[in-house]
Each structure stands twice: as structure tokens, then as C-alpha cells.
Amino acid sequence: MIAVTTHLLRHGRTEYSARYLVNGDPAVQLQLDEEGVRACHTARPTLPIESARTWIASAFPRAQQTAALLIGEEARLPVVIPLLNELDYGYFEGAPFLEYAAWLRHHGPWVKPPGAGESQREGIHRMLLGLMATLEKPGPRVVVAHGLLLSVLDWHLSRTPGSAMPLFFPEAPYLVPLAIDDGPMAKHAAALLEELDNQDRRHGWAPGHVPISGTDAASTLANVDSPQKPLEE
Question: Hey, which end of the chain has fewer CB within 10 Å, N or C?
Fold first, then answer.
């Protein structure tokens, strides 16, 4: 049997990314900036443009624009799966990422930000359900999602056995595909969902305390849609 593969990637760069701002509201018409558009054209040769049977994107304009630029055909629109959407930042919508990160560090991953409909962990759980939903579409497939989902998967694939899920994850690069066959993809997503379901939400997250498995939080603040920090460039 020939393995069916999903090519999962983060959307291209936006003006918000360049300015270190967060956007978790799909109603905000945030498009790719000039660099993001150029990068899409550069990335096309790295993707299975011709062989992909299904293109999938979140409900965010930047994800759908990225998919459209990569497809290069107006007749082939991506399937939209809102479960893949970016986190709901609530009060922090449009604010610098580091403001949200400071709040998250203090309150922990199971607390919803003011005005938000989900916590960080609930958002990750939702995104993983969205990833499972993509496997129901014909493959091979290309999925354009957001940085946090890619970061969680990348961390999980290289994690030390027995290590706890951190609060912050290394940043996922723009437009670099993570190719995983359907069998392993379903296995990894199911394992992460079970891990989240089994986490104790009441203990271990005292204000100001962040267990990060020995990783310096200052070097791992770049998750979700924050851009590369200057020290990393």
C-alpha cells in the first residue's frame, strides 16, 4: 500500500508578524506582506503542487491567501477547516506577542485570556482535532495552518521520552513543510490529544511559575504567529 502524506506548513509572513503583533480574530483582514508573497513563490518548488489532491487552510485570510498563492490556480480553492484556526487572544488581539506571553507565563496554559473563548491548551486541543479532520480529505494533501500547531508537532516529534508539554515552543518557520504520512499523523495527534485530556488543570501552574522542562523561557517565547526575534536572525 502506498503511504498517503500530509504536507503541513505555516502561512507566509504578515505585517503583524513583522511588527511582533498577534492576530487571533479571522474577521481581521490580515493579508501577507510583500515578503510573505515573495516567499510563497519561492516555496512552490518545495511542495507537491501537481500531486496534491486536496488543499486545506484555516479560516484566516493569511492562511487562505498562502494556499491560493501556492496553488497558483483560481479554480482550485482550499478546503476551509476552522478547527485549524489560530488561538483566540481575546483582550490581547492586535497587541505585542510579548504582552500575551507575559500574561500566559503568569496565569498558565489552562486559563482563558480576558475576552477569549479558549485557553492555550484548549486551542491546541482544537487544532489537533482539526488536524485529524484533514485526514478525512483525499490525499496527498497540503495543509496551511498556524505556527503553534507546527511548533507543537515539531516538539512532539523530537521530545525527550517522558518530558512534559512546555508552555512555550520553538517557533515554526514560515512555509517550510512538515511531511507526515497518515498513519503516523493520526498516531501523533491522538497521543497529544490524550495527553491534553489527561493533564491536571488544577495543579502545577502557580502564578509566576512555569515548568518548561529545563528550557529557558526567554529563548522559547516565539510561538504562535510571532516572528523571529532579532537575536535569532
Answer: N
